[in-house]
Amino acid sequence: xxxxxxxxxxxxxxxxxxxxxxxxxxxxxxxxxxxxxxxxxxxxxxxxxxxxxxxxxxxxxxxxxxxxxxxxxxxxxxxxxxxxxxxxxxxxxxxxxxxxxxxxxxxxxxxxxxxxxxxxxxxxxxxxxxxxxxxxxx
Length: 138
Ligand code: ZN
Fold this sequence. Notes:
The protein has helices spanning 22-32, 57-70, 88-97; strands spanning 2-10, 17-20, 37-43, 48-53, 100-106, 109-110, 117-122, 129-137. It is an alpha+beta fold. Zinc ion binds next to loops.
């Protein structure tokens, strides 16, 4: 069995944002040479997510509004976590949207369902964050 590891770096110039990272994951699979196996993609920061959904801008603004209802950014004083930091909402949003995804690799490609794409979700940006790609297989 082969294994391959790669780290992606992101520095989103706003507090929140979604980026389609499917091209980077496809590039990593190609680089790995693995044709049959699994790819794990996970955020390496506790205020960012990796998730799978549709690359549709209306849906992304729906996510933003839904997450703001569940865990509003402000007022900062509503959260016990805030004090030295103001990012309690980002921790909660990360938990809702998830830490990682695992996708089957078949014939050297992501074995996706209809419209599935992999996204990086930033909830406390304007600083460097990391995403891990780990691929195992043959
Ligand atoms: Zn925090």
